[in-house]
Design brief:
The protein is of the alpha+beta class. About 45% of the residues lie in helices and about 20% in strands.
């Protein structure tokens, strides 16, 4: 019997047997350890739950309950190739399928909303026999899956880059021949219309292809890009001329608004052209199929910046994804129509030149992007092949 001192505390009397005191203290310690274990399991970020052979939940911590509720509500998605329903039958619930001893050792992957979960199971016990219950651990592997996909995409791009460099080298010789013979035709035709204008188009585009291929080879060789002085309207005019056939094919009007300012720039013209091409193509793709689809380009000066503005009257960019459009490999386009590289690379080029690329507006009436660049850069600054200033930081 315990002795009460009157202050609410209980102590075993001095005459109590030592064995009883030990059992009492062991019981208190055991209950404290059990409560501590319960709190630890409930606070786990990983889900921990136990199912019997019928898929009935006999225990689940808080993280597991959220996942199991989603499974029961049918809010999840399972990769058809990995779904065991092919073996268990379509009428079997996912919980019962998980609890099937035949699936032991095979991790299951579920998508619940935007999160991806991986579930591992083990027998509840240490014997080799099949027990009635199994313990499961679920882990959120969304970030790991994203990094795996990113790494796989990078490996693909690496292969594409190597192939592109080889193709650029192989195509340079026939393009050089086309350029040479088109120049010879120009010398012979003199001012004969309209044949001369046709040959001029061939010659001009051949030179453009040569410059593009040369840039690919320069990037492969890590050669410095060339900064030159030029006017923004000339750059915009070349891009519009290049993409006008693409716009016509998609029945989109591609227009340049009259520029009041000349917008003198000192920059790597080739990398800026690529950035602007990405912006205009995005606008064309956003408005393709509309009766009145249009992409308009405006040039103006604001403070010490030259701003090239690209506007379209497409459906706009949903508010919930506007904060992610400059993330590498993020795209809202269907598979095969977008890589998620255009906007991130265009912003990188802008920031490397001391400028910025921003989504100025986006609504149901279209989107407006602004490529803002300083009027001039320090002459002679060495730029990397992608347009980034050597030794500088690239966001």
């Amino acid at each position: 019997m315990r002795h009460d001192d009157g202050d609410g505390s209980a102590e075993w009397p001095q005459w109590a047997p030592r064995t009883e005191v030990g059992r009492w203290r062991s019981g208190i310690a055991g209950r404290c350890d059990l409560e501590r274990l319960k709190r630890a399991v409930e606070s786990m970020e990983d889900g921990l739950f136990i199912l019997d052979r019928d898929g009935t939940i006999t225990f689940a911590n808080q993280a597991a309950r959220r996942l199991l509720d989603g499974l029961d509500a049918g809010q999840h998605h399972v990769d058809p190739a990995a779904c065991c329903r092919r073996r268990c039958g379509r009428t079997v619930s996912c919980r019962r399928c998980l609890a099937n001893p035949a699936q032991l050792g095979q991790p299951a992957v579920f998508s619940l909303g935007e999160r991806v979960y991986e579930i591992h199971a083990t027998r509840l016990g240490d014997s080799g026999e099949l027990h009635e219950e199994q313990v499961f651990v679920s882990r959120d592997v969304t970030e790991r899956k994203r990094l795996e996909e990113l790494e796989a995409h990078r490996e693909c791009l690496s292969v594409v880059g190597e192939v592109a460099a080889v193709l650029a080298h192989e195509m340079s010789n026939p393009l050089a021949a086309i350029s040479l013979f088109s120049q010879m035709l120009l010398d012979e035709l003199q001012a004969t219309p309209p044949l001369r204008s046709y040959v001029e188009v061939i010659h001009r585009n051949t030179l453009g292809c040569n410059r593009t291929l040369r840039s690919i080879l320069d990037m492969a060789a890590a050669a410095p890009a060339t900064a030159v002085e030029f006017e923004a309207p000339d750059l915009v005019g070349e891009v519009v001329e290049l993409l006008q056939p693409v716009a016509r094919h998609n029945r989109v009007a591609l227009e340049v608004e009259a520029a009041e300012d000349r917008g003198q720039l000192y920059a790597d013209e080739l990398s800026l052209r690529r950035a602007l091409i990405n912006l205009v193509i995005n606008g064309i793709q956003a408005t393709a199929g509309r009766v009145d689809g249009a992409v308009k380009i405006a040039i103006f000066e604001r403070d010490d910046e030259v701003v090239i503005q690209v506007r379209d009257n497409g459906p706009g960019i949903p508010v919930e994804v506007q904060g992610r459009i400059f993330e590498l490999f993020f795209t809202t386009k269907p598979p095969g129509q977008g890589t998620g590289l255009g906007l991130p690379s265009a912003r990188q080029v802008a920031e490397a030149h001391g400028g910025r690329l921003v989504l100025a507006t986006s609504s149901g009436a279209g989107s407006t992007f602004e490529l803002a660049l300083p009027r001039s850069l320090a002459a002679g600054e060495d730029l990397a092949p992608d347009g980034t200033a050597r030794g500088g930081m690239v966001a």
